[in-house]
Prior knowledge:
The complex is a heterodimer.
Chain A: H1 2-8, H2 41-51, H3 55-86, E1 87-88, E2 91-92, H4 94-141, H5 146-151, H6 154-195, H7 197-204, H8 206-244, H9 246-251, H10 255-303, H11 311-323, H12 325-352, E3 375-382, E4 391-398, E5 403-407, H13 414-421, E6 429-434, E7 437-438, H14 444-450, E8 451-454, E9 463-464, H15 465-470, H16 478-487, H17 491-495, E10 504-505, H18 514-528, E11 532-536, H19 544-558, E12 562-566, H20 570-575, E13 578-583, E14 586-591, H21 593-599, H22 602-608, H23 619-631
Parallel strand pairs in A: 5-12, 5-13, 8-11, 11-12
Antiparallel strand pairs in A: 1-2, 3-4, 3-6, 6-7, 9-10, 13-14
Chain B: H1 2-6, H2 15-37, H3 40-77, H4 81-134, H5 137-142, H6 145-160, H7 162-187, H8 189-196, H9 198-236, H10 238-243, H11 247-299, H12 305-323, H13 325-346, E1 368-375, E2 386-393, E3 398-402, H14 409-415, E4 424-429, E5 432-433, H15 439-445, E6 446-449, H16 460-464, H17 473-482, H18 486-491, H19 509-521, E7 527-531, H20 539-548, H21 550-554, E8 557-561, H22 565-568, E9 573-578, E10 581-586, H23 588-594, H24 597-605, H25 612-615
Parallel strand pairs in B: 3-8, 3-9, 6-7, 7-8
Antiparallel strand pairs in B: 1-2, 1-4, 4-5, 9-10
Helix pairs in contact in B: 2-13, 3-4, 3-7, 3-12, 4-6, 4-7, 6-13, 7-8, 7-12, 7-13, 8-11, 8-12, 9-11, 9-12, 9-13, 11-12, 17-19
Amino acid sequence: MAQEHASEIEIEPNDGGRRPPRAVVGSHRAEEEMFGRAFDQKIVRRIWAFVRPYQATAAVSVAALLIFTGTQLLIPLIIRYAINEAITPAGVDRSALLEAAGAFALAILVNFGAAYAQEAVIGKMAGNVLFDIRRAMFAHLQMVSLSFMDKTEIGRLMSRLQGDVNSIQEFLESSIYSVGDITLLFGIIVVMLCVNFRLGLLTLSVLPVLLVIRIVWLPRARDAFTAAQDTNSVVNGALAEAIHGVRTVQSMDRQQVNFALYDDKAHADLTTHLIAARYTQIMVPIVDGLTGLAMAVVIVVGGSMNGPIEVGALVAYIFYIQRFFDPIRSLTLQYSVMQRAMASGKRLTEVLDVQIEVQDKRDARVLSAEMDCSVEFRNVTFGYDPNHPVLSNVSFEVNPGETVALVGPTGSGKSSAMALVHRFYDVQQGQVLVGGRDVRDLTQESLGLQIAMVLQEPFLFTGTVFENIRYHKTEATRDRVIEAAKVVGAHDFITSLPNGYETQLGERGGNLSLGQRQLVSFARALVADAKILVLDEATANIDSYTEMLIQKALRKLLEGRTGLVIAHRLATIRYADRIIVLQNGQVIETGNHDKLMAMGGLYSKLYDLNYSSFDDIPKEEADATVKAASRT
Amino acid sequence: MSSDAVGTTSLKSSAHVKAAGWGRGLSTLLRITRMNLRHPGQAALAIGSTIAAVILQVLIPQLLGDAIDQTKVVLGGGATGAAAEQALWVPALLLLAASTLRGLFTMAQNYFAEAVGHHVAYELRLAFYDKVQRLSFSFHDRVHSGDLITLGILDLDGVRMYFSTALVRLLLLTMLIGIGGYRMISTDTLLGFIALSFVPFVAWRSSITQVKLRAIWLNLQERLSVLGRVMEENLAGIRVVRAFSAQAYEMAKFDRASKNALEVAHQQVDVYVPNTSAMTLAFFLAMGLVLWIGCNKVIVGQISVGTLTMFLAFMTILQMPVRQIGLMVNGFARAYTCGSRLFGLLDQDNTIRDVPTARPLEIGEGTLRFDNVSFAYPGTGNRAVLENVTFCARRGETIAIVGPPGSGKSTIAHLIPRFYDVTGGAIMLDGQDIRGVTLATLRKAVAVVQQDAFLFTTTIENNIAYGDPWAKEQRIERASESAQLHNYILGLPAGYKTVVGERGTSLSGGQRQRLTIARTMMLRPSVVIFDDSTAAIDAATEQRIRVAIRRFAKDRVTIIIAHRLSSLKHADRILFVDNGKIVERGTHQELLAKQGRYKALHDLQLRPGDDIVTKYRGAP
């Protein structure tokens, strides 16, 4: 049905029917390796480091688990004793029955206690370890250099923090339970062999059969399960995309084409799930058949053995047979769990091992609020790649209380200069000084307290408007926040929001316009109340009304502070006390507007092009001007 | 857009489900059952296999008991050798056969039950996708996309599981406990009752545990998603975090969210562990009693050892299914809540749809007319966003709309393709009211270049050809040339085959906008609307785009909504909108001469040398 619809909307009838549409829904994420080697000593050691704090509890849980397994082994033996000793053909032994009853009562009580203890302890411990690993990674990411963050996709980090830690938890839990499984399996084998060696051996001969079947089955089943997971994530991804892009879908009238494509994906998902279900279920008759076989062996062989075998033993055997396939199942699954955990563990350790490049010196000083608020670049050379410097031998000063505009074409190194003031990166040569001190000699935290930064893209967090303005200054009062919002001219629009300052912002402040977000980020910088303000002006076109509000706010923000502004708007540039023109990572002109105009250099040429913003200058024109300027 | 923030309703809230009451719940379950039965072959196989499996299952303890009695006879009688062996072959082979058959039937039961569920899920997925794609903008404004996704993934899964975890399991448990219980009680009343004594307790505890665990699980998911959001925002906003040296604050935020989630994770253990341990204890207690009384009965000769074995074997067989009663109860509960929510969406009326008499739109001279159009967003009362807007545009004309933020400019763009319906007046295309024509033809005739460009996770090529998936490569390249995107694309390693979107290469705001323009250039609409779609593109590039699309604009009505005057001063007519009304209209020159609002805006923008702040001191 959907297919018909799709061909109905042919646009180029000449070949529309024959050519498949240039369209897809849902995408296949290039998945990371899911399974690694089953055992990697280095990674296990790293995981162990996180378990170590819980060593004692881990020991308790293993002990409880062993006791639990012991009672499981014991119960059929007690039943055997009761049947054999109390009801012998020779006569009745009531005291033996009483003994058996007492032993049984004791066994189930111990079983209860041990089960309780092991499950509670293991469950909580594995949960704690998961949260500890996640915390360690998150804390590490707070310190790694921004150049690492720049080149790493957030989605990838998130899958470390959310997906990979879970496989470690799974691994821990199942590893401990494996200890119990192995004990139970060997316990059953030993007990069965002890009770009657020949019968035990015969009965146990079905075990290797199952083991071989499982080993053949496992890789195939795993492929089937992985395929089902993949198609499922594709289908869900396609659905999410349809929901997020619904406005585009409707305005482009793509519903029918998309439906047909989605139908294919959903059908593929149905198929892989049915195949996976077949793989899961095929084991049921195999295990049941082998159980039946083992019981038949016990009855025929046990019943007609030359040596006498007691009825009690037969009953006990039947109980054991019903249990001994379980450990094999979970132990073979454990193999996959371990492979998955090693692959995840490898990725986790990669994050934990990212070097922290910018670090406080051991004797780093605190930048006091009483410093003189000057900023100075002294022969600074810097490049993200040291071989390709973005800034070379740059020197300039921003005096206390002064506002300096950094101006220059794209790629001239303005943003890098700004990042260096805050020591986001370390310079390769020269020095950046704040308050007369090399930033490398100061603690990063105190530097941050004295420098407020406003970034080009105003980033807001989920939460209320109030929380966003206050941000990390948790001690700031409501009045202080409102005061700041008033100063930057954000108060009016905030109070007109449905819940005023308590309005919840959507993801990334989605329910505010760009200009409004900009104003909130200004208010946030004002509340931070730092002595030095570093600001990267937004380049995007904001409507003129909001633009005017922003210009006003900017002036308020710079009042009484040392300001370093990467300026794009001429209005901002003209307001600055001094203008520094950067080109190809070098300072080429310095001075105020009038002086620069008089100089007749790059600045005056760009200014004469008469655009309202330097970003509006067509690239060719700017390049030509720059070229001409560098020749002179 | 603004109504998004105002009228957010959450589908997640189960309030309306609870309010719906049992009648609605029952009808939901019946509806799911009917959907299951629409696969009669598989459903019948699942049910038939379940019955066969239960009968064989009940047979096994009986056979075991018989076999034990046989061996007892053999052992007690002292018979040895071939005769004894022969006597044992029959029960042994029966046991083997019963066990194997039971396995086969259980396999069939599980497989077909799951298959029914998967088929129903497949149908629901398609229905859900189709519905969501077609529901009107006002619906999507109101409902969080995250909630919709949850509905289409988790709730759908709850309905899928209904047949296997609830219905089939109900049949299985009823039969197993019924037949097994009957056999035991009819064999020995006292022993039978004792053997079954653990069933009510375990059933009760397991149901309560599962229901509690589900509530905790939902809570945990919610808290984990808060934690996820905290981490994700921290990483995305890492520059802000570093700029404010707010690492300590962020760590505290993380720790709070993390602790909240961990607490609930521990709650899970706290609920689960005591209950499962208690259930095991109850089972063993009953078994101990059976053993004690059974042995005494054997001693006095009331029953045989084989019968005692049968009782014990029965109990072990019953144990697992009885523990799973909770899962079954949960299966019903989940299907009921998930189903109600899902059907609630599937049964939604679509407010924007073809009227029964709708005819295909016929484009002749290509004239767009707004006749006294008024509009208020649904659910905002009567707060009019547009009031009595009237204008007319002919083929080849360009109409520019400008005005302060929130004046209703974008709303005009949204009304023409019927993303929303006008609340007063009418919009006419070549004399046809757009509400009287089919949506498909209308939307083909009206193209909107939207403010926030949405990129689909696929190649650039496919993204450009989104509205015309059968387009040839040359056309795609021509469109992207006009949108000034071609050279950039050629510079990418994979060119037009570069995957963009959420999971692909990310494009800058300007590049995304240019891609959306190219996307629109692929269409052949009669009306094209640029809804503030060049804000992130620099003026010079925009100028080049404007030149490039001049030919394109010749054959249609072009509406440009923008705030940069250079984008709109070439328009044939400029409408200045404020508070939902057109307050000034005319050409650029006419409006400048008027010395009104437009002129003020013009002065504000086009005097780069002046310090606008000092000039406009006190302006809004």
